[in-house]
Amino acid sequence: MIWAVAAIVIWIFGWWLNVRLANGASSDNTLVKILVPAIFGITVLIVWELLVRGFEVNPVILPTPSAIFERLISEGPRLWADFQQTIIKGAMSGYLIGALAAFGVAILADRSEFLTRGILPVGSFMAALPIVGTAPIFVKWLGSDWESKAAVVAVMVFFPILVNTVAGLRDTTTMQRDLMRTYGAGYWPTLLKLRLPSAMPFIFNGLKIGTTLALIGAIVAEFFGSPTVGMGFRISTSFGQLALDMVWAEIVIAALAGSAFYGVMTLIEKRVTFWHPSQR
Amino acid sequence: MKSVVPVLTVVAAIIGFWLLAVIPMNMHLVADQAQRDGLMVTPEAPADRQEVSGVGLALSNTHLIPLTYNFVRPRLPAPQQVAVELWKTTVEKKITSKRSLVYHGWVTLAPTLLGFVIGTGLGILLAVGIVYSRVMDRSVMPWAIVSQTIPILALAPMVIVVLGSMGIQGVFPKSLIAAYLSFFPVVVGMVKGLRSPDGMQLDLLRTYHASNTQGFWKLRLPASTPYLFASLKIGISASLVGTIVAELPTGAKAGFGARMLVGDQYGQPLVSWAALIAAAITAAALVGLFSLIERATLKRMGMAAS
């Protein structure tokens, strides 16, 4: 009981602190802007820990954050191996293949107005489909190692990137294209110096959507067959052993990897599209 | 309407590619079967055939090509095989039958819709809270954005099993995942939408002496409608994907996901492919339905749909 009371007290204290900070005089300070969500997150973790202890929740249902953290430290090498298998080999290579294929198709299709008008609706339709359901089929075709995961990821990221690239390449005004023509620029200089740069905000939008899809595809595909390493494999086997703290440790790794992947893309985007109003 | 022909062309190109791919994908299996049936196959030893690629084998055995389109257990079924299987399992089967895709579709659709309604409702409520409370904005909004970069969908099967071990079964666990997946897109979209009226419009309402509540109902909520529909379309397809993934590796007995896995495990690729296409049609129908409602609503509200 004392744990539950402590949890409520800490929750109220954390919320009070955030109210003070967010409504205070220095609320537009960068430090405060980071501090407020951080306090919120830490409060949730502490309340979770206290409630699980207080109500003696079975660790098979919900482990404490401290137990998960312990796993993260003690199982470091194994988690690293899983990370390499799933994220580096499966997700990254698939992401690269899918993105390059999407660029290629987009630039080819862009030469014809007719094809562009066909690809945009079909592509955005395909992007809304449950493509991850093809995972069992790809595992059957390409075996259980990382190649099949890369294939699933490539197909999943292909359509969002394709649609965004095609839409982006259309995003130049007649005025801008006429200017290029007065400079005597042909197709390729126009593409490289005007249309690709102005398509970059769209392309990065597609690339950022793809980051999460890539991780989902790589992990889900491992549920259908994998070598004895990999995050999806570890999640499903640890689950069978009722080692939920290990499952959560993998979730933490996946979350960190997902945010980092997204963050890196945002950084590159800032560098490439520094001229865009949204970045200034 | 002028994009009908281009769309059809692209679809035809995809189907054409599929038709071409059927030949090399199935050629080895067909050649083995043909030899067992006593037909002539050019590299006669099966070991030699393993050396040749699917395309090479097709070129040296042109008489076997028609057979690849009608193979019983193909690696890649031909489009018309999938279409026939779809027809058989939707129209010709009674919907109460365990093999009817309409039955499995409903098993998937019911939790999707329930979860979607819950997730959207909660998402709108949280968005209203975020727009009117600075504390919630500052503490919850960053997490809502970060949570979209987390591959939470990959954990759907685990959630199902955990809830199942606690004795919670049926529609609810799957709806929970569908709700979660539609929740954050709606929150992010609605916050953007509710904040879309500019200072001028808000000031105008203040000169009318409108209260906060009136400002919400008369300005913020109507202004957020286009954003709401954009998030609804993302949310409904995310919900459907979530339900299907939740069904995939958990030993679920019914639903599109279960159907895909059953076909895979018992060597009936046609069952998997029919389920996959049926899921795609369902997703398309749901997104299309929302597009229609969107167009009608925005038209009545006087906002030209772009």
CATH class of the largest domain in chain B: Mainly Alpha
State the order of secondary-structure elements of chain A, H for helix, E for strand: HHHHHHHHHHH
CATH superfamily membership of the largest domain in chain A = MetI-like
The oligomeric state of the chains shown is: heterodimer
Reported CATH architecture of the largest domain in chain A: Orthogonal Bundle
Largest sheet, strands/sense/barrel of chain B: none
Which stretches of chain A are low in confidence, meaning pLDDT under 50 for 5 or more residues running?
none
CATH superfamily of the largest domain in chain B: MetI-like
How confident is the prediction overall: mean pLDDT of chain B?
80
Q: How many DSSP H or I helices of chain A?
A: 11
User: Counting H and I runs of at least 4 residues, what is the number of helices of chain B?
Assistant: 14
Secondary structural class of chain A: mainly alpha
The end-to-end distance of chain B, rounded to whole angstroms, is 14 Å
Which chain pair shows the most residues in contact? A-B, 57 and 57 residues
Query: pLDDT under 50 segments of chain B (min length 5)?
Result: none
Instruction: Compute the CA-based radius of gyration of chain B.
Output: 26 Å
Overall, the morphology of chain A is flat
In one word, what is the shape of chain B?
elongated
